[in-house]
Design a protein that fits this description.
alpha+beta; CBS-domain; 2 domains; four-stranded mixed sheet; two-stranded antiparallel ribbon; 6 helices; 6 strands
């Protein structure tokens, strides 16, 4: 069974979002308070864009914009690419690699946000899978039960 973005990588839940007219400072404070690095820009339940810490740094701070006077709609990445809850880790990583994304919203069939996934979330699951595979390989080579409690079978 291949892991799915939801629930194997991230759990479905409320996704941090602000309206397009909210200020960059409000977004920065909301991200800091929630300990996240990205939020969605949404209105009436519809995703309009995404803003990340990198956007705040590169598009606001580095260019000298006033974070109190700059609305999110001026610096967001509009119409962000997204994942579906049942997409695979490899699909998510490939999309992130191809477009240099670090965060992607996970939207249900109606376009409602159900989660936000980061490249860090994905690599944590990949690392766990690799560790499991190595333990199983070593157990197979040594002919013993693996660390996950699965016994060896002689096939007969």
């Amino acid at each position: 069974m291949r892991p799915k973005i939801v629930p194997d990588v991230v759990k479905a839940g409320e996704v941090l979002s602000l309206p397009p007219q909210a200020s960059v400072r409000q977004a920065a404070r909301a991200m800091a308070a929630s300990n996240v690095a990205a939020l969605l820009v949404a209105e009436a339940g519809r995703v309009l864009g995404i803003v990340t810490e990198r956007d705040v740094s590169a598009r606001v701070v580095a260019t000298g914009l006033d974070p109190d006077a700059t609305p999110l709609q001026a610096v967001m990445s509009p119409n962000p690419r997204s994942l579906a809850p049942d997409d695979s880790i490899s699909e998510a990583l490939e999309l992130m690699r191809r477009h240099s994304f670090r965060h992607l919203p996970v939207l249900d069939g109606d376009g409602t946000p159900v989660a936000m996934v980061s490249v860090r979330d994905l690599y944590a699951v990949v690392q766990t899978q690799l560790e499991h595979d190595i333990l199983n390989r070593d157990a197979w080579i040594l002919g013993v039960a693996d660390a996950w409690g699965e016994g060896m079978s002689d096939g007969g």
